[in-house]
Structures are given as structure tokens and as C-alpha cells.
Automatic annotation (TrEMBL):
This is PhoX family phosphatase. InterPro entries: PhoX (IPR008557). It holds the Pfam family K319L-like_PKD. It comes from Sphingomonas yabuuchiae. Residues 596-619, 780-807 are annotated as: Disordered. PANTHER family: DUF839 DOMAIN-CONTAINING PROTEIN, SLR8030 PROTEIN. Residues 786-805 have a biased composition (Polar residues).
């Protein structure tokens, strides 16, 4: 989530509304070589294995022409993911055929198996595992000799030196890696659109990159350029969110105060939304294809279709859609979801702040649908709100246009009470998960209402196992909100992964199922509680809110979760699922209203949210640095209704109290604050198999006196690999002690991989299927400037060295590659 420089009043809505009671290659020489017979009739051979540039040879004492071995029979090992070369050498004679074959260990793909020099990448393993390979050489007279090479593969390690803290205005990565700036604010996605001037005078952002790059997915693209190819690591579609704007830099002299000019408001609106762009890699270099027919911008003005139980509901009816089945656009899109059937989920987070609601609206609603006042208050849209960026103050050149008026949710008593003549119901059209087919630029995105309405941060699927109903995990990003999962009614059918009508597959898995909310117990167990009308008090007689039907439960997901007594969390943000174990991780960024003891609107510490403290120089009390919680489903199935949990890691500066704050024992190589972005490497490459790499990104304001925001790589263990810890919170004149559950100290399995430029957020990450290119978004660099003529960052221009002090910063997507061509991080 962004921290926004508010030039024309911006906020996220009423954010606290929950009032409910509840080792490098050159260092690794690994080989084990067996004796072998030489070929008769003057042909002699030997076998070797090469790891990271070091060559060891096997010998044949009976063949005087063979190379003498220097390490015959030695024990060899290599870490998973490293390149291995097998070399056969012929001392004399003539060879007719050569064949390398694997005789033991996890299967690998041999390159050049019919040549003397073959290669492969060491496979992922959970424990040390032996591999063996046989070299069969046939002489021209048909005589055969066999030789064997064996080696031991060990689990992956984080093979880089941790990046130190940095306040520099560049993206810093470890030695041996390179950064390429790929796609920046304003970059044109049509050949007819001119290059970005970056002076505040650019227009037509419906065909340019938007601002505040955020959640992101890469989809492999076939050689024909028309269909998905899950194995393509050189051509693909990159789909990314544009969460918000740094308003100051979009206009020549900054924004004009209200009433806002139409041209400025159009630019700001179009800078929100989603980009779909084609990207290619040629000669090792990544570029985006400006003229691709698949390029697309989805903005707050793009037509949307509602799908699922809320489609056509009375609360979705507006002057734009009298039958409540259609809407316009998506906004404040934060994290994402990559579906197994090649669609992209974008999620509407802090949408509430964009709406104007003037005094007197509550009275009008009381006379028609009084419970809407309860709903609007719970979602942070109180009376007196003017709406972000003042878009409703625009007088459009086309008097019939409702592009700006739609952001005024005030009910007009003189107009139809059903909402079809104004936009009193427009807020109910937001807060949803939106599905996009990136391969069909003419498709209409669908808002998946069965997944509930909230400040959706992201939506990630659990493991997709044939015959098992899949789950989709979500966080509601606001203080004291909840963690959810949706379990589809339909068991997964693997053939759907290659379906041509991808949105129809989305209908199949995302429109029918059960939405659950999480309750975390102090003993390390938890329950998924169903949000189903007619169960657990979710009915018309409920005193908190009288629910009318299941659509009402989904529109008012927060209120339903309140009734069930879900656990209030410290701002649930990104979710990620370990592809090897199925365990779900969720970042809890921070919580300023978490106090040692509950009082009024303040929430007290509990087992799952055990810290409240002061982190100087700030004097604020709360969970300042955040933590990452994880759950293991009962029987490791997505269909489970119970789970166990612990905290993977607590954010903290290395210098903070190790007893009650720096509970994970972080040091200068891995201390962090306010975890936000979260993602596991893909199971299509070794970094996502057996013991996958997890990536953590920060959106911080508490540690930025020490370092800019960052990205870390981790190899986490499993739920329960640590123990319990008694934690005492003493601040603000109160004290409380709770027992929490914490994973083992991460140590060297957690390292800082990247530090961003000034005043940025690191957010959004994905990779090519082979794991050799990692895409990362840098959001709102230089956001704290007070005038566009004196920017506080010059990135990405500063990435190449010196840059003019007046160059405006731009949010951008970067690509990180390993200089030796290997899998990133390992």
C-alpha cells in the first residue's frame, strides 16, 4: 500500500472502523568419479564433472593414455540449482556413439546427452541426495565401455552476499546481478503515442503506463503471439497494477486546487488501474513491445461486468447500470493473483477514500435503506467526505458525462429511491476482486463477488490439486481487519489450465463456493468460520446488522466477520502460498492502534498480534514494524476448516530489544520493517521446489531513517519449527504479557537482496518460468517533494549514475538477472 503525498486532499477512507468485540559456483568443486574400462583397439576414455569452473578427472590405471586423476573417488557435493557439466574425454581411438544417461537420483534434463560434454542444473532436494550418471562410449568396431560419475546434491542456499542498508537514490542488488529498467510511468503502449516528456504536459494515459506500479504477474506467451505458453521465459505478457498517483509530478506546476480542471482529473484517473504489456528478451536484454496488439490499459473508466451472487443486486444499481450487472473500472489496485488458467486477479484496496459523501446523505438513506448507513460507516465512508483529488468538482465539457459525478455517493432525495438516477450505490461497486484475461484485449473484466467485499490487498490461490476444491487466500488491508479464504464448490480439473475461454473457467471456480474468515486461538490452532447467510447469526434479526440474504453478507463481509468474532489483525496485506508445502503466509504490515491493553477504539495485544511498543525516534505506540504470520491447514488440504499457526518472522531493527521486540533475532543483514509484498518463487524452476525461496518486500515509514525500503529473500521452514515465547508490551502507561508462537530464528536463511531508491515502496514481484529473470516494481520514488521543480528523487534516471537534479522521478518495473545466467538468489 502506498504512502501518498496529498496535494489535493487524499486519504484511504476512515481506516480504523472495526468496532466489533472480537556458496558461489567458483567455490564449489563437486565430483565423484568411478574407475572405468578403456575402449579396446586403442580407444581410451575418461569422465569428469565440472562445477563452477573446476574440473576433476576420473582415471583408468590400465590405460597409459588416459589423463591421470587428481581426485578420483573423492566425495562431491553441489547445491540445488547450480549448473553441472559432465565431460567425457577420449585419449585415443575413434568413437562411433556417445550417450550420457542418469542412473540414480531425482530426474534431471540432460543437455547434449549424445556428446562428450553434457550439462544439467542440479535439481531441488529437501535433503542431501545422490545422483549418478553413466557415460557409454561405443567404438567404431562396436565395442562398448561404461563409466560412472556420482555426486551429492544439497538443498538450495541463498547464494549472495546480503545488501547493506542504503539511503542512495538507486536500486542496489548483490554483486553478480544486474538491474534493467523496463517499464516506467508514462511509457507509451501504442506506436501512435509519443515518448514521455516527463514535464507534466503529457496526456493520453489510457495508452501510457500508469503510476504507482504494484502487484504484478508474468504470463509466458507462445511463439505465435496469441496463446499462453507456460514454459516461455523469453516472451510473455506482464500484467501489473497502478495503485495510485504521485499527483505532484503529473502536472507541469503541480495540481490545480478545486474546482479541478477536467484535463488534470482525466490524467489522474487514467493513471490508476492495470497495464497489460508484451515483453521480450533478445540477446539477454529485456524490452517491452510498444506496438504489441496485446498491450492494454484498464482504468477506472473501463467497462466491468459483475459476476457471482451479488450480480444484479439492488445495491449495485446506478445511473450507469440500472440493472446492477455492469460497472465502470477498478481503482486503488494493490496486490494481485495469478490463476492456474492464465488469468490475472487485481484487487481493489483503498477505494473508499475516492468517494464524496456530503452532510444530509444519512438522512436520505434512513428514509429508504437505513442499513446502508451502517455499511458505509463500517467501510470508512462517513458524511462530510470530499473525495480524493476533488474529481467531483470538475465541470465536464460534455454536460452529459458522469465520469466525474460518479464519485459523489451522496443520495439525492429528489431522485429515484432505487439509486438508478444517481450514484448513491457506486461505493458498493468497489471493494471486489477483479479477474482479467490478459490474452484477450477485447474481453470485459469480471468482478468476482463471491470472494467478498473489503479492502482487498491480494488474492492468491492455494495449491491446485486435481480432485480437490481449491482455496484463495485474502487479506483485508486496514487496521484490525481480518484474513479470509474462499473455497470453491468445484474440485480442480487440471485440463482447465489450458482452456481457451479463460474467464469461463473463472466462472467455474470463483463464482460459487464458501467464504471463510480466520480466528486465531492462543494455543496455536485456528478455525475458518463460514460467512453463510442463515448460519451463526448472519440473518435478518441480527442486532449488529440485519442481513437480508447471501448477497448482503458478501457486500458487507466486514460486518459478517464482526458477528462471527474473527481475530483482528495488524493490517493483513499480501498472502503467499508455499508451493511445496501448501502453507499460507500473510504479511501484517503494522498497526498504530494495537496497544498493550484494549481501550476504547484501541485493540489490545493477543497471541497472533503480540507486540505494542515505541520505536524511537517516533513516540507512537503500536506494532511499528509488523510481522509475517503463517498457517498450516489441517491435513494440508485447501478444503480444511481448521489450521495451526505461528509467526514466521517479526520485523524489527537489529538494535531493538531482543526479548520483546526483535523476537526473530534479526541482524544487519536481514533486519526489516513493515513487510508488505510477499511471493514464492515458481514451482517451474528449482527455486520454487522442495524448499522454495520466499520474497519479502517492505512499505515502511518506521525504519527509513536507517535505510530505504527493501526486498529480502528467505528459505522459510514450516509451521511449528520454533516454539512459544512470552512477550511483554509496556508502553503508553500500560503493560500486558501474552504468549505467542514463533518460528525458528531465520539466521542466514533470510537475507536482504535489494534496497530501493529514495522514498519508494518495493512492491510487486514475479519471474519467468525458469527463474532467471525476476520482475520487481519500484513505487512512488521521491514522494515527499513539495514542488515538482525540486524532486526528492531522480530515479530511474539516477540508476545509470548522475542525473539532473530537476528530473522528475517515475514509478517503474525493473528486471533483475544473474550475470552468469543462473536462477536468481540461489
Amino acid at each position: 500500500m502506498s504512502d501518498i503525498n496529498n496535494m489535493v486532499a487524499y486519504d484511504d477512507g476512515d481506516i480504523d472502523t472495526n468496532r466489533s468485540a472480537n556458496a558461489h559456483m567458483s567455490d564449489l568443486i563437486a565430483t565423484r568419479l568411478s574407475r572405468r574400462q578403456t575402449l579396446r583397439h586403442g580407444v581410451s576414455a575418461m569422465t569428469t564433472a565440472l562445477f563452477g569452473g573446476a574440473l576433476l578427472a576420473g582415471c583408468d590405471d590400465e590405460n597409459p593414455q588416459a589423463v591421470t586423476a587428481t581426485a578420483a573417488g573423492s566425495t562431491a557435493s553441489v547445491a540445488a540449482g547450480r549448473p553441472v557439466t559432465l565431460t567425457g574425454t577420449v585419449g585415443s581411438g575413434q568413437v562411433a556413439n556417445v550417450n550420457w544417461s542418469q542412473t540414480a537420483g531425482p530426474s534431471v534434463t540432460l543437455t547434449n546427452a549424445n556428446q562428450l560434454v553434457a550439462s544439467f542444473r542440479a535439481p531441488a532436494v529437501a535433503t542431501a541426495t545422490q545422483l549418478a550418471f553413466k557415460l557409454e562410449i561405443t567404438s567404431r568396431d562396436g565395442l562398448v565401455t561404461n563409466n560412472t560419475v556420482t555426486l551429492t546434491v544439497t538443498p538450495i542456499t541463498l547464494d549472495f552476499t546480503a545488501v547493506p542498508h542504503s539511503l542512495a537514490d538507486i536500486v542496489t542488488v548483490p554483486s553478480g546481478y544486474s538491474v534493467t529498467v523496463l517499464y516506467r510511468l508514462g511509457d507509451p503502449i501504442s506506436s501512435a503515442v509519443p515518448a514521455y516528456a516527463n514535464n507534466g504536459n503529457d496526456t493520453n494515459f489510457a495508452q501510457r503506463a500508469g503510476d504507482h506500479h504494484d502487484g504484478m504477474s508474468y504470463f509466458g506467451l507462445s511463439s505465435s503471439g496469441a496463446n499462453p505458453d507456460p514454459n516461455s521465459s523469453t516472451r510473455g505478457l506482464l500484467v501489473l497494477n497502478h495503485e495510485n498517483i504521485t499527483q505532484l509530478y503529473l502536472h507541469a506546476n503541480g495540481p490545480t486546487p478545486s474546482p479541478r480542471p477536467e484535463s488534470e482529473a482525466i490524467k489522474e484517473i487514467e493513471c490508476h488501474g492495470v497495464s497489460v504489456i508484451e515483453v521480450t528478451r533478445a540477446n539477454g536484454a529485456w524490452t517491452y513491445v510498444q506496438s504489441s496488439s496485446l498491450n492494454r490499459r484498464i482504468t477506472p473508466n473501463t467497462p466491468m461486468a459483475f459476476s457471482g451472487p451479488v450480480k444484479g443486486n439492488a445495491w449495485l444499481k446506478t445511473a450507469y447500470s440500472a440493472d446492477g450487472t455492469m460497472g465502470r473500472g477498478t481503482i486503488n489496485n494493490c496486490a494481485n493473483g495469478t490463476m492456474a488458467w492464465n488469468t490475472y486477479l487485481t484487487n481493489e484496496e483503498n477505494w473508499a477514500g475516492y468517494f464524496r459523501r456530503t452532510a444530509g446523505d444519512a438522512a436520505v438513506r434512513t428514509a429508504t435503506t437505513a442499513r446502508q448507513n451502517v455499511s458505509l460507516a463500517r467501510y470508512g465512508i462517513s458524511e462530510g467526505r470530499s473525495g480524493n483529488y476533488g474529481w467531483t468538482t470538475v465541470t465536464p465539457s460534455d454536460a452529459s458525462s458522469t465520469v466525474f459525478r460518479r464519485w459523489n455517493a451522496t443520495a439525492n432525495a429528489a431522485l429515484a429511491a432505487d439509486g438508478t438516477a444517481d450514484f448513491r450505490h457506486e461505493p458498493f461497486q468497489f471493494g471486489w476482486v477483479v479477474e482479467i484475461d490478459p490474452f484477450n484485449p477485447n474481453s470485459t473484466p469480471r468482478k468476482r463477488t463471491a470472494l467478498g467485499r473489503m479492502n482487498h490487498e491480494g488474492c492468491q490461490s492455494g495449491r491446485m490439486i486435481a480432485g480437490v476444491r481449491p482455496a484463495f487466500y485474502m487479506g483485508d488491508d486496514a487496521q484490525n481487519e481480518y484474513i479470509y479464504k474462499f473455497v470453491s464448490t468445484t474440485p480442480w480439473n487440471a485440463s482447465d489450465a489450458s482452456a481457451s475461454d479463460r474467464l469461463a473457467v473463472g466462472d467455474k471456480y470463483l463464482d460459487n463456493g464458501t467464504l471463510y474468515v480466520a480466528k486465531f486461538n492462543a494455543d496455536g490452532t485456528g478455525q475458518w468460520m463460514p460467512l453463510v447467510f442463515g448460519q451463526n447469526g448472519l440473518n435478518a434479526s441480527n442486532s449488529v446488522y440485519p442481513f437480508a440474504d447471501q448477497a448482503d453478507v458478501l457486500i458487507n463481509t466486514r460486518l459478517a466477520a464482526d458477528v462471527l468474532g474473527a481475530t483482528k489483525m495488524d493490517r493483513p496485506e499480501w498472502t503467499a502460498v508455499n508451493p511445496a508445502t501448501g502453507e499460507m503466509y500473510c504479511t501484517l504490515t503494522n498497526n498504530a492502534s494495537r496497544k498493550p491493553v484494549a481501550s476504547g477504539n484501541q485493540t489490545g495485544v493477543d497471541a497472533a498480534n503480540p507486540r505494542s511498543y515505541v520505536d524511537a525516534p517516533s513516540t507512537s505506540v503500536g506494532n511499528r514494524n509488523g510481522h509475517i504470520i503463517r498457517i498450516r491447514e489441517a491435513n494440508d488440504t485447501t478444503e480444511a476448516t481448521s489450521f495451526t499457526w505461528d509467526v514466521y518472522a517479526f520485523g524489527a531493527g537489529a538494535d531493538l530489544d531482543p526479548t520483546n521486540i526483535n523476537l526473530s533475532g534479526l541482524d544487519a543483514t536481514n533486519d526489516f520493517s513493515s513487510p508488505d509484498g510477499l511471493w514464492f518463487s515458481l514451482p517451474s524452476n528449482v527455486a520454487g521446489q522442495q524448499t522454495p525461496v520466499m520474497w519479502i518486500q517492505t512499505d515502511d515509514g518506521a525504519f527509513t531513517d536507517v535505510t530505504n525500503c527493501m526486498m529480502l529473500a528467505a528459505i522459510p521452514g514450516r509451521v511449528g519449527d520454533g516454539g512459544t515465547r512470552s512477550v511483554t508490551s509496556s508502553a503508553g502507561g500500560s503493560s500486558a504479557t501474552v504468549t505467542t508462537r514463533i518460528g525458528k530464528a531465520p539466521g542466514v536463511t533470510l537475507k536482504r537482496f535489494l534496497v530501493g531508491p529514495k522514498q519508494c515502496e518495493i512492491t510487486g514481484i514475479h519471474s519467468t518460468p525458469d527463474g532467471t529473470s525476476v520482475f520487481v516494481n519500484i513505487q512512488h520514488p521521491g514522494e515527499d517533494a513539495s514542488t515538482p521543480s525540486a524532486p526528492t528523487s531522480n530515479w530511474p534516471d539516477s540508476q545509470g549514475g548522475s542525473a539532473s537534479a530537476t528530473i522528475r522521478p517515475r514509478s517503474a518495473t525493473i528486471v533483475i538477472t544473474k550475470n552468469d545466467g543462473g536462477v536468481v538468489a540461489i
